[in-house]
Amino acid sequence: MSDREVIVCRCEEVTLGEIREWIERGYDTVDELKRVLRVGMGPCQGRGCTEMIMREIARITGKPIAETGPSRHRPPVKPVKLGTIVEGVKEE
Amino acid sequence: MSDLPRTADVVVIGGGVVGCSIAYNLAKRGVKEVVLLEKGSLCCGSTGRCAAGIRAQWGTEMNCRLGKASLDIFETLSEELGMDVGLYQGGYLMIAYTEKELEQLKKNVALQNSLGIRSKMISLDEARELSPHLNPEGALGFFFHHRDGHADPFLTTFAYAEAAKRLGVRIFRFTQCVGIEVESGRIRAVKTNRGEIHTRVVVNAAGGYSQDVAAMAGVSIPTYPEVHEIMVTEPVERFAQPMHMSFSGNFYIMQRPHGSVIMGYGPEEHEKSYECGNTVEFMEVMARKAVKLLPVMRGLRVVRHWSGLYDMTPDKQPIICEADEVKGFFIATGFSGHGFMFGPITGVVVAEMIMGEEPSVPVHMLHYRRFACGELILEPAVV
């Protein structure tokens, strides 16, 4: 199976091949890969792919894994409907 | 690390869209040794946190000219830089909710038209053609400019950086400017956490941190950082074409080509701070505004909420100039929330100024001198 067929970020459908290509071009932190490829920007917020990407960066660059990421965790913890937020406000 | 050069023709401080655009435009004009310093990674500051909007619908002649000139550049930028910058021109739909705002927007349209920007007041029916789910409750008027829109701030900045690198610009990430040496009223060197670079030209494109960088050269500018929050939903099929914006309604809401919806508003009491926090209040107020304007969004899920710095000036207009006190110290900052959309033209005019040419958009009024002599150019059209 070619790395062009392996999907790492399922939310944004980003392949291992694309991730490797951009790491080779010097985008060797999770933050930078997120900005250029949208990895980790989907509904799961990187829960599925961040660790795989960190391992891949460390493998290619030889950097310690701790220097590769992760990206900052941002609210909400899980996706919330706008309607639910509005209803929640009304109940107060 | 010892790869930092000992000398450079120009050192640009700041790896946002403004810094990268300046570096690219200098190299394009033949400047050989251009070095760009970024204390984090490219786009880690205001550019990467911004709402991505691009517009020519402004309320001052200066911003109209800068906005239109940037739009002109954006329209061919992917081709010029050899990388897709994610441009989407669905127009900006401005909505007036007060008589005062209605009058102001009419005046703005007259000004815009006089400068070649083909904006216009449109009817409710026309507004609904653009945004079929729009709830017009309380709206007194609608204004539209079809060439406005948005682009991807990350891809735009990376496209500038990649094109700049191909032209020989050297970009150093995780390299912080910690001091600027001035000798006899002229730039002499830049000190970084990784060594010193001798140069006669420094550009301050440090966004929210620009006042600190200016102070290193002994120059005082009245910029200050202001925290603005923003959030984005999951992607869905396109349901609205334009960016929806209102100054009295205090919101902007737009759907990216990717399908996600980005939205934000400016809080009444802005916090002057570098700390980019997120508040529950923002999410609640923004959700109410969004569901009221576009009830179809009720079922859309918010996936991410973040914040970033507006690099403010007292009149909400940028500072683009060479410092009076220090020769060779150029400033391109204070964009007050609009640095992304003005980035492309700023790169051009700052490069022209450094080359000693007449800037292609007359920006003399954007010198920081204006704050001392009281010649402010107050922009009425800011969220």
Question: Mind explaining what this structure looks like?
Answer:
The complex is a heterodimer of chains A (92) and B (383). Chain A is built from 4 helices and 3 strands, in the order E-E-H-H-H-E-H. Chain A has helices at residues 16-24, 30-37, 50-61, 82-90; strands at 7-9, 14-15, 80-81. In chain A, helix 1 (16-24) packs across helix 3. Chain B has 2 domains: 10-48 and 154-223 and 315-373, FAD/NAD(P)-binding domain (3-Layer(bba) Sandwich), CATH 3.50.50.60; 90-145 and 224-312, D-Amino Acid Oxidase, Chain A, domain 2 (2-Layer Sandwich), CATH 3.30.9. In chain B, helix 1 runs parallel beside helix 6, helix 1 (17-28) runs parallel beside helix 9 (339-354) and helix 3 packs across helix 9 (339-354). By secondary structure, chain B is α/β, with parallel strands linked by helices. In chain B, a hairpin with a 2-residue loop joins strand 9 (177-183) and strand 10 (186-192). The model of chain B has no long low-confidence stretch (mean pLDDT 95). Chain B has 10 helices and 19 strands. The chains are: A mainly alpha (92), B alpha/beta (383).
Map the helices and strands.
The complex is a heterodimer of chains A (92) and B (383).
Chain A: E1 7-9, E2 14-15, H1 16-24, H2 30-37, H3 50-61, E3 80-81, H4 82-90
Helix pairs in contact in A: 1-3
Chain B: E1 10-13, H1 17-28, E2 34-37, H2 46-49, E3 53-54, H3 61-81, E4 92-96, H4 99-114, E5 120-122, H5 124-130, E6 141-145, E7 149-150, H6 153-166, E8 170-172, E9 177-183, E10 186-192, E11 195-198, E12 202-204, H7 210-216, E13 224-233, E14 243-246, E15 251-255, E16 261-264, H8 280-293, E17 301-312, E18 319-322, E19 329-333, H9 339-354, H10 369-373
Parallel strand pairs in B: 1-2, 1-12, 2-8, 4-14, 12-19
Antiparallel strand pairs in B: 3-7, 4-6, 5-6, 9-10, 10-11, 13-16, 13-17, 14-15, 15-16, 18-19
